[in-house]
Input
Amino acid sequence: MEKPSAPLAIAKTVVIATISLAVIVPMLVVVSTSFASGEQIRDAGGYVLFPTDPTLEAYRTIFSSPLVFRSLGVSVFVTAVGTLLALFVTICMAYALSRPVLGGKFMLMAIILTLFFSPGLIPMFLMIKQLGLLNSIWSLILPGAFAGFNFIVMRSFFMGIPTELTEAARIDGASDFRILRTVVLPLSKAVIAVIGLFYAVGFWNSFFNAMLYINDQTLWPVQMILRSYVIQGTSLTADQLGVQQAPPPQSIKMAVVVVALAPIVLVYPFLQKYFSKGVITGAIKG
Amino acid sequence: MTTRSTAQPEAPPAAPAPANEPHPGSDSSGASRGRPPRSLRSRLRRDWQMLVLMIPGALALLLFFYIPIFGNVIAFQDYQPYYTISEAPFVGLTKFVELFQDDRFGLALRNTLIYAAFQLVLFFPLPILLALIVDSMMSQRLRKAFQSIVYLPHFLSWVLVIALFQQMLGGAGLINQAMVRSGLDPIPFMTNSDSFALLIVAEVAWKDAGWGMIIFLAALASIDQSLYESAASDGAGRFRRTWHITLPGMRPVIVLLLILNLGSILTVGFEQFILQRDAVGADTAEVLDTYSYYTGVIGGDWSIGAAAGLAKGIVGTILILLANKVAHLLGEDGIYRGRPQ
Output
């Protein structure tokens, strides 16, 4: 393609720069403010872009607050256990349905339907209640243990593994369990990493399940803390105190935001490597 | 798909196409699974390990999808928490009549349609435009960097996105601080019910416009480059080429996503609304999903809440089937064809 004309090129650059800044600046401001000293925040009117005197005070405070610290524990537990369980369930199902198998067509249809409908909020709530999972950490884990979309990506990857490999193992007398463990899994590290990250991000981010099923504050995941102390807290105090006054524990709030944000930003580079390969082939070719 | 905030992209629910299925006759799974075995018993003996592997997933489907789906019968019952589902008295469509007479349901329905329309008109074209911009970027490095930046917000939770918006646009947020210091009156972006629809779209755009472009980029990459060259040699200018080659090339994907959007039109973003309901008030932020939640779980009107959810699901399904039909009439593939190609 030829070079774009000058006005068009300028317009495009402006658009691209604006969008990039709109994504980056909010996160940057929040991170910087969380490291700034109380004085600097007060002088700057609430937000700081370059902390002159960086301090970890805010982080020290939240990590010594039992509520926040425990919520991080809950989130980490839910994410770790949930991801492992979901990977186990998804891998087993995807491998079984990647070969023609008794009842496979039926099971596949049963899974595909889950992509189009949802049971609805109330029946889900009643089901969780019926299972005795209300106010249990397992209500945050079990309903997320299987996601149709992730299953489909996983299955199409397994179907791409040459059958010569699995059949050779079968002729050598390996069982299906053994083939999965010794042949298929070692070849599937990439897809397991992507799907694992998708599940992990989902568990870490999930907020509504906690709001619905968990009353006990000590079982709150970090997203619930974020909601109560940052979203609800701020909108209340800002209205009551008038806008000039920055809420005093500003850096603490920002630190809570950062703690919820950090794991995602940290795994993001790993996730990203696989977007184009994993997701697009899985989703579009599917 | 209850919310738009899961980490999974809202890609088309990629039903594995029949083409992907190993052909029954083609013996793609080797000797032991190629020929159809004679009896059920021998198939069981051959497949039992595979069947065992399906158990955890089947259990999850049953417990967290199929049983709850049938739990929707409480919409036809006068369900109370002290009943079990089989004990609750059957009341037919009474609950639906009650539902449609409830003013708050009318409000929720109206709000839902308004926000859906705003999202469709203002948000839907954004990923397409972004994809066109990215596709025309000359520098590969710049392009990669830009893609990394705009994909990121998709992976943040709604709670986080709204917290960030609040820190920027809220009453005590960055922008208002700056405005106050330069002598202007602060604008309550986050609590103003009149501009709430625009705020909703802005949040959705910030979070998902970049991610949404992935699928359009893939569509663009599959357009035959020689078409552009021959059009250019025939004297077609930049905009003519975009209009006559690029957009038609993307049309199937655009139609597909439009259908999926119509199917989920009544699902406008549950977490987003429930998180901001306190700030702008129930009159503004009540949508069908929040209505279901507040009536059922909070208000204890379980049957009404379930009826609202069920009505929403049924209308959504009808919409998706209709949209697919229309797409067929226009000569597009849509999500599925009635018969295999």
